[in-house]
Amino acid sequence: MRLADVGESGLVERLLGRLARGPGVVRGAGDDAAVLDLGGKELLLFTVDTLVEEVHFSRAYGSMRDLGAKAMAVNLSDVAAMGGRPVYAVVSLAAPAETAVADIDDLYAGLAGTAARYGVTLVGGDTVRHPHGLVITVALLGLAGRERVLYRKGAVSGDLFYVTGSLGASAAGLFLFQNPHPACPPEVEDRLKKAHLSPEPRVVAGGLLAASGVVSAAEDISDGLALTVAHICTAGGVGARLLADRVPLSPEVRRLGILTGKDPLEWALFGGEDYELLFTVRPGAAAGLEREMAAAGWPVTWIGEVLGPGEGLWLEDAAGAGRPLVPGGYDAFGTEP
C-alpha cells in the first residue's frame, strides 16, 4: 500500500491514532490549528504548513517575494479560521546550494513583509541544503479568547453555511498560468493570477466571526469548497445542501469560464487556495451577523444549509434539482495542482 492509495485524509486518520494527548491539549490534530492551554487568559494556537517547489508552486509563475508572502499567508489563514490573532512565526528553508542569495533575500522580504502586515514577529527558524528545489515550512503561533475559538466541529442540522469573499479565482489564475489564453483581457488575467500568487488571509474577518458568538463551525477554504464542506460535516456528523447559484464567483472567474468553456463553479468547488472562510451560523442569528459583517467591510454570502446525520452532501441547481456533492479537492498525495 502506498500513500497515493490512502490519500492525505487516509494518512492523517492513520497517524491520529498514534498521537498521544498530553496535558494542556484542548484540541490536537483535526482542525486548522492545534489549541493549547498554558494557563493564561488566552489559548495558544499552533499551526504549520509546508510548500514544496513543483508540488505547491512553480518559480516560473511569480517572484520570490510573492512566494514568501504566500508561504506566510497560508499559515495566517489557519489562525484566521480559528478566530485567532497571529503573533509569532519561525521559518524553515531547504534550498540547493546553487540558489542565488538575492533570491533568498527576496523570499524572506516577502515572508517578513506579510508577517509585519498582520502583526506577526519572525523569531527564528532553520536552513538546510536540499538537492532538488525549495522547501519552505512556516510554523505559526496565535492567541484566541478562551470562549472564542472556532472549530470545524459544531454545526447542527438547520444551521446555515456562509462564506467570506468570492471563490474560484486562485484556481482560475493557476489555469491561466498553465493554459495561456490569448483572448483573455489583461485586466482579467492580472486579477486572477494575483489571486493565485498573493492570497489575502481573512484574519480580521475571522476575529469578527469569533467575537460574534454565533458561529457554530468554521474552516478556511484551502482545498476547495467541496472538500471544506465535507470536513465540517464529517467533524459534526451532519450533511449539507449547497445552492450552486449562491456560490459567489467574481466577474473575472465568470469571464474566464465563458472564454474557455469551463464551468467556473468547478474552480470554486474543487480548485482550492482561495483562503476565504467557510462557516456555519444558527438560522436565528444569520441576518444580524450579515449586517454586522457588512458594516465592518466584510460581507458574507449564504450558500446553503446543514442537513441531519446520514443525509449526505448535496449540490442543488437553480431549478431545485440536486446531485451528490463529491468531496473532491486538493490531495497532497493525489493529483498535483
UniProtKB/TrEMBL annotation:
Gene Ontology MF annotations: ATP binding; magnesium ion binding; thiamine-phosphate kinase activity
Binding site for ATP: Y108, G125, D126, R152, S222
Enzyme class: transferase
Chemical reaction(s) catalysed: thiamine phosphate + ATP = thiamine diphosphate + ADP
Extra information: Reaction mechanism of ThiL seems to utilize a direct, inline transfer of the gamma-phosphate of ATP to TMP rather than a phosphorylated enzyme intermediate.
Protein name: Thiamine-monophosphate kinase
Enzyme Commission code: 2.7.4.16
UniProt-annotated binding residues for Mg(2+) 2: D49, D78
SUPFAM superfamilies, A to Z: PurM C-terminal domain-like, PurM N-terminal domain-like
Keywords assigned by UniProt, alphabetized: ATP-binding, Kinase, Magnesium, Metal-binding, Nucleotide-binding, Thiamine biosynthesis, Transferase
HAMAP family: TMP_kinase (MF_02128)
Residues annotated to bind Mg(2+) 4: D32, T47, D78
Record family assignment: Belongs to the thiamine-monophosphate kinase family.
Pathway assignment: Cofactor biosynthesis; thiamine diphosphate biosynthesis; thiamine diphosphate from thiamine phosphate: step 1/1
Any single biological process term in GO: thiamine biosynthetic process
InterPro entries for the chain: PurM-like_C_dom, PurM-like_C_sf, PurM-like_N, PurM-like_N_sf, ThiL-like
Taxonomy, superkingdom: Bacteria
Function: Catalyzes the ATP-dependent phosphorylation of thiamine-monophosphate (TMP) to form thiamine-pyrophosphate (TPP), the active form of vitamin B1.
Domain PurM-like C-terminal: 157-309
